Structures are given as C-alpha cells and as structure tokens.
Amino acid sequence: MKTIYINTWLTLLLVAQLSYGQSLESKKDKDTTSIWQLMKHDATYTAKGVGYSLSRPIYWKAKDFTKMGTLIAGTALLSLADDPVRDFASNGREHVPEILRDFGWYFGSPQNYFMANAGLYGFGLLTKNEQVRKTSVLIITSSITSGLIQSFTKTAIGRARPGTELGNHSFSPFSKEGRFHSFPSGHTILSVTMAHSIAKQFDNIWIKTGIYAIGAIPPMSRLIDDAHWITDIAFSTALSIIIVDGVDKFLFNEDAYNYPKRPKTISWNITFGSNTIGVVGQF
Question: What is d(CA 186, CA 149) in angstroms, rounded to the nearest whole number?
Fold first, then answer.
C-alpha cells in the first residue's frame, strides 16, 4: 500500500512536469553538458540556496521584521479557532475516505517525500530537462531550509498535540517527547513546499488549483487525525510559501537556470473585519 501511494504521487509529478515542459517554448540549444557537470551545478546551487535562505535574517530590515511579527501575531490570533476547528474536524472524520488520510500520512513522511523528489530529479537529470531539474532543486533547497527551521522550532517550542488533551496553549520547550512536537507541522511544510514549487511552473489556473488541492491533502489529513492544530498548519503553510518564493528569487537572480520570466511572489497581510480575522496572500 505504501509503495502504491509513493508511485502514484511520483507518476503525477512526472506527468505534470512533462506537460508543462512541452508547453513552454524551448530556448535551449542541444545540451552537450555531461551528467556529472549538471549534478555539480545543481548541488552547488542547492548548497548556496540553503545558505542564502538561512542567512537572510542577518540582512533583514524593519519591514522584514514587521512582516515576521505580523505572521506570528496572526498565528496567535488564529489560535482562537484551534478548538472549534478541531471539533469540526473530529465530527467529520468518519466521512473522510481512508485512502485520503493514508495518502496524507505517507506522502508527508520525509522518506517518501524525498524518494519522490529523487525520482523527479533523476528524470530531469537523465533527460537533461532544465525545467524539471530547476523545479527539483527548488523543492530540495526549500525543503532542507524549512526542515532545519522546523526541526529546531518543533523541539524548542514544545507545543502539545491535540490528542494529548492538554490544550492548545500547553508547552514543554525542548521536550524529547513526540506529543510535544506539534508546532510547526512537518507534513504540511513538505507537502506545501512541493506543491508550491511545482505550481509556480504553470500559468494555467486550473492546473495550479489541482496541484494545490493535492498538496493540501497531507495538512488536512493531519488535522482530521487530530495530530495538529489549525495554527500549526496555517503557520507551516505560510512559512513554506515564503521560503519557496525566497529560494526561487535567489535562483533567478543568480541566473542559475533558464527562467522564462521573473517569478511571482506572495505578500502576506493580516486582515480584520466584523468577527473575522484572516491572512491574505496577494499574488
């Protein structure tokens, strides 16, 4: 069963990549570069991208700290919805097909996730498809960056998972127990990172929507399985998108790959209204 989920997702990725690769106008002459040279190039920019991403806070200006503060404040405000959303998810659990919940678990697991991306990268490398290689480098670079951040914060914050029944404001910083590793959500970070990285390669809104819909399955399955609070998922989603956009911008500015146009970015803002609090991403 596990292998079926991995192979199904990988097949979808390869089909998607072939589709958009064929739809874009090729600006590349016949590639005579060796596989080894391409691997060195990709590894170099992966390492540079991770270093760039992790070092960004050193260069932040006032507006950057304001954006981070807004994200944190928005997450804190959203915690008011933790219990109501948990109750709603619990009540609807029996109506969610088991195959979707299993898919969310298996794909969000690191070993399966990286196997899928390894297959994607291998395809791009062997076929010398620059679009696929670039997408895979974007995914792995963003995943390493977000993974390092997530691993530290998950332990440092020590938030209790919903299933512990300790409440959404219960914390045990630097606890080694898995029940205190709720924030942020690793499954969400990995799935959103891959979905956003791939969706950025398309202009068609329907294709983008389909990719994001598939990427949303792991976060939702974790919510339904009572493994995370809605704030865990919301913060992880925003963090993943911010990191992917940052890495994409870095690769573009470095002229590492053939970008047909400047990548779009998302600016996040907190909105307030009558009895509502929202996070809006402007494309």
Answer: 10
